[in-house]
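Researcher: First entry.
Model:
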Amino acid sequence: MSSAARTSKALLAGLGLVLASGCARADTDLERTAATFSESAANDPVSACALLAPKTRQELESERNEPCDSAIAGVALPRGGAVVRSEVAGHSGQVVLRGDTVFLSLFDDGWKVTAAGCRPQDASHDLPYDCSVKGG
């Protein structure tokens, strides 16, 4: 194998590692945001609100006609618990926790929660999930 071929092969292998580690980091950040939101919703509503996507926060405040921290404290969100699995598709993600399913979107400043308190619906419903907190 020529020196150029070895160099190209090494560069491709290195690129694969960089890409794989980038995906792992995205999944870790995604999972951390979902778990932190789930924990904060019960104990620190101000921190939970900071993790909401702007439209989700606006919809929550509008529906409940109160500031986000008061509104989120009034929503009976389940305790999420440990991460069961997560998926990332582009700038969207889903984290299934032991007690909740959380949907997120990637913004310039990181992952933000777009929906939480989500429960799967049976096949007779139009939408696959019913969420306690969601954005339009």
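Researcher: Second entry.
Model:
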Amino acid sequence: MSAPPPAIVLVRPQLGENIGKAARAMLNFGLTDLRLVAPRDGWPNPAAGPAASGADVVLERAQVFETVAEAVADCAYVYATTVRKRGLVIPIVSPEEAGREIHANDGPSAILFGAERSGLETDEVALAGKIVTVPVNPDFRSLNLAQAVILLAYEWSKHVALAVPTEGDAEEPRASQAHLEGLIEQLYASLEAAHYFHPPDRTPATKNTIRTILTKAGWSAREIQALRGVIRALVEPGGRPRRS
């Protein structure tokens, strides 16, 4: 069985028209899971409907979240679309590679798209396991939101008919983003208690480095549970580790 269609996550979208155009692009290729993070003008937005040109089902099902972490909490694979690495050591893939991978993934995926003018913040990119970069003209990087969405949706759709079930024992499914966040926050808290983060002004960068190390590993839920038990055993020597 192929992985479910990816969720399209628009982070701080500014114009209702752009949300509507993104919804239209999604439905053209069979995507309906639209998630909005802190839309500037609130939601629902009356300008989105006309721009969607009939993709009402996408707008009606759209979910609104306050943060990116909440929007992707149920996703095991997160891809961030950006033209810059932003100082993070995260694998970079093309839209075609991302579309192929999403079909091969063993859990739900999400694709992040930043605000029209500012794009994604570094902390938001750090939530992703991979960065998707579109190889556009370096002298004219002017890809609008709907164009970016339709490009990724098209690359995903190319593999729909090609997906075939595989035989044999399946690998353990990848842990959701919520499980991963639990591990990361537990490790942060343990390191803070041990006064690991020094100097203070380097703490955000150090935390992002730790996050990318853990995100790239692709843990299963069972592996994350084991790691959390290891951390507890180290923090509470002599005590019996408690289960999550």
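Model: Note on the second entry: Residues 177-235 form one domain.
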